[in-house]
Amino acid sequence: MNHMITASAVALIASLSAANAQTEVQWWHAMGGELGVKLEEIVKGFNDSQEDFKVVPSYKGTYPETMTAAIAAFRAKEQPAIVQVFEVGTGTMMAAKGAIVPVYQLMQDQGANFDPAAFLPQVVGYYTDTDGNMLSMPFNSSTPILYYNKSVFEKAGLDPEQPPKTWAEMEEFSKKIIDSGAASCGFTTGWISWIQTENFSAWHNQPIGTMENGFGGLDARLSVNGPAQVKHWGNLKKWADDGIFKYGGPVGGDNAPPMFYSQECAMIMNSSASRAGVIANAKDFDLGFGMLPYYDDIEGAPQNSIIGGATLWVLSGRPDEEYAGAAKFFEYLSSPEVQADWASFSGYLPITQAAADQMQGFFDENPGADTGIKQITLNAPTENSKGLRFGNYVQIRGIIDEEFEQLLSGSKDAQGALDSVVERGNKLIEEFQAQNQ
Amino acid sequence: MKRTIFSNQLLPWLLLAPQLAITFIFFLWPAGQAIRQSFLREDAFGINSSFVGLANFRALLDSPEYLNSLQVTAIFAVSVTVMSMGVALLLAIAVDRMLKSARVYTTLLVWPYAVAPAVAGILWWFIFNPTIGVMPYVLDMVGYDWNHISSKTDAMLLVVIASAWKQISYNFLFFVAGLQAIPASMREAAAIDGAGPVRRFFDITFPLLSPTTFFLLVVNIVYAMFDTFAVIDATTEGGPAQATNIMVYKVYFDGFVGQNIGSSAAQSVFLMAIVITLTIIQFRWVEKKVEY
User: Fold this and answer.
1) CATH number of the domain that A329 lies in?
2) How many domains, chain B?
3) What is the pLDDT of residues B171-189, one digit of tens each?
4) Measuring CA to CA, how many Å separate A162 from each of A55, A179, A200, B116?
5) Residues in domain ABC transmembrane type-1 (chain B) (predicted)?
6) Do A311 and A291 share a structural domain?
7) Chain B residues with CB inside 8 Å of A394's CB?
């Protein structure tokens, strides 16, 4: 009897030390619901594929909550090795030089299998420094596209296979739709900031800020009050007054999708990653996909759209073994199989060319699923269409929403509203610069 | 009042220790931290930190958004206080006149107080939701296009209603107690003298109720300014265009979402000053000058 206890105790200790030999790598993320379940499946795939490391994912709430939690943890020296940060947090993370380990450096230090050329420049460009070094690992990237209601188009006497290509057509089609009574509003949109301001600018090859949209350094300032943006915001206000366009609210525009689902609005511009959600809700009508509209009188349009979503940042100050684990995990994560599986499931963009090639079969079977990737790869990115990088950008996005609301309520015109965005935004950018120097 | 004399000098401190520890850990220490942070300029991760004197305070006073927040807070606090106390007083008077069913009504009216602010916010957000809510549908029939997502007035009304509704129960309880403490003989005497119900209310009931009213006034202003965070967060998130961005919400947003800790700390120092002022008013003025 005693022997048995001793034996089982020895076995227990042995199994414990085996478990201890496995290095745990904490990953804080912001993927709830179905995406969170899929994420855990990916992590399980990695954990089962080798024995040295165990990635432990923890859901920390929304993007801002996750970022705040990671920063607070860093201040308390309890930070995770990997944290998922949304694209507008990039400026803040990048500037925190002592707090992060750039991904290219991590992969180099750990001798990991890492070829920067394998990644899609349109996706990773947003997260590289001016020398082209990748700072964080793209995980879920998307781009805004146009969704339209084919049934309403048909009722209005429009060709259901032809989504509007230009903003002039957008207006013309919307008027036809409203006049024929097929729907009571032409279009709505999510994300005034991301879609109708940032992506609008990239799509028309117009700058948002100086010094390559902020990629050049902390001295960069906003310059989003150019003629193209003023023209577009002015039109949106006019179309809102005419009932052609309906505003879906600040930030992501939570009220926009219901207006599209209920067939009140015939078209919506929203993230390519909401594809699955849109399909699930578009039960009573046929759904079409198109690229974002452009103004054909603006030179350089259409250029390419930019991405949104989040990337994985590696925080400094963890034991070295954890970095070895993080590097291994990133290798696994960027493999074509994992990428293709994740992208097909979620509607996010694949981050490597190999993954995009592997998804060809999926794209053939699911018409419209490749709209996003076609749109970001339409042209080689210019300094205006690579992305943007400013500090305090979460608040600047809030300012964009507020000034757009001032425009809609009639208290400012388009020029005045965008001038205020620049003026108020630059104050925050100056503050950020002062904090980080 | 009888004074209790402790023979042992240590014992009273020992008895006080738990409370003192809580006060220190949860009030004094964080308050000290806030004051320290308000003089610093720091990046989000706390890597670079420099002393900037009063720069954070000066920036706030120069900022139109902060001045707007002050104004919004004032309008909000006064509206919530007037609305919740007004409705509560009406209900209390109504209950005071009842003989048999008063107890049942009192119990029912107290229920909303048990609802968490975030839940109250969500409830009213549903009722007033422009797309799926009941109220916009009803208002549309009388020709009002309710939309708290784009209209500043509608947004303010929504947060005022949601916050006031929750506080009515609390005020109601105090008013009922206050009314019951007023001797019926005084009102009866006035009635015999020929005073009507309105006159009786303004000449007898309301003045005698003033200690309760003053107490509730301070409590309600404090409630509206500091306890309504969850209501704002669950409904408007300070929007549209900062129309409902009350000071407490702005502290949270600038500090936790915007990662601007210096400015956020300076704002909490201002808030601290307001709380201290209100507390002094309550203790020095309301509790002493108003006779119970």
Assistant:
1) 3.40.190.10
2) 1
3) 999 998 888 888 888 888 8
4) 46, 19, 21, 51
5) 70-282
6) no
7) 257-259
